[in-house]
Amino acid sequence: MKVKRVSEAFPRGWMNQKRAVRRAAVVLLASSALLAMAPSSASAATNGASNVTVSWFYWTGSPGESALWQTDANAVTAKYPNIHLAQVSTSYSNFWPKLATEEQSHSLQCIVWVHWAQVGQFHQIYLPLNSLIAKNHFDIGGYERQMVKALSWNGKDLGVPFDHGPIMTVYNAKVFKQLGLQEPKPGWTWGDFLHDAAVLKAHGYYSFLPTHPLTVAYDLSGVPYGYEQKGKFNLTGNKAFGKAIAEQLAWVAKDGYGPTPTTNPNFVSGEEGTGKVAMWFDGPWNLIDYKASVPFPTSWAPLPAGPKGSVSYDTGSGFGISKDCSNPQAAFQAISVLDGPAAEHRYGQEGRGFPALLSQQASWGLAAGKANYRNLLYQENRTVFETETSNWTSFSDALSRFNPLGYGGKMGAVTFLKAV
Q: Does domain 168-313+391-419 have CATH number 3.50.50.60?
């Protein structure tokens, strides 16, 4: 039975900042002339004949993802010929500092990405959408209910979600077959994982990357939210959580099941691209990147079963409207296309994410295959949402800084967690 709560650990991941930085640090998809027309807002009434320029700020992690967003921008103008999107994009890791800077200068773009993990920190920049949802007769009830809740603050909807999904096991089915290993499937255990990791290591393959440690800790221990207390981070207050973190550090520092991480934001994607990593943990939103950068077709399975079975955190994001926007109606009409059925189907079909629009969720199976989609549904039904906090960005930055020391064996788990 699926249990839900508003929250998650690691945004698009802690080390998942990796892919957002991947192939271009800052990508400007709109011409400078177009941006000059509307640096932060739409300038004319949507319902009139005048052209409206709506600025749109988002992150992107690969050429394929950037092309997808461009298709969406074109779709907005196709439906509303007088609305044109001026696109401003950057990497995931650069998005948040830029967002904070532009908030201070009141120069935010109209449409702005909303991410579950940063709602607690940035909720004040977003315009509540409740009245626009009602005015435009937008069916917010068609979207994953808890994802809508995750993008809200004090009962006010701050964004329309476009994706969500659990952390899962990603693996190289060809290597597993070559080595005579059973492919991961519902019901496999952490004992199976460790057995496979040892076999893979003996044949020169890694089986673990230091991503999503909070999710893995939940699955290993069966204790959700072990890293927090009363809505604030407390990494040393739960013994089960500490033990689960210690196990993960040992998989790299002691067992050699994964490479010692560095602070290079491209570290994880670089390792994946070598083909030497045969198994790791990640979410369905990265399938679009894997199709372009990983030298084998990825297969997807639930996390290994811990004391409470295969359990995972659910996470996702969407689009909202900043308070600096002078034409919220135009922006909302654009969002209704960016998060509409055709776009949601595209996100799934291209592997950009597990759609938040319930009617389009099966489209992810078109990218991943039916068996992988069934495994996603299995894992999705065993998730909880993670907790919104006011300092997620600082938390994930601290994890990234101490990450090489912990996984490098230069800090024990207790010292590592205290340092963070």
A: no
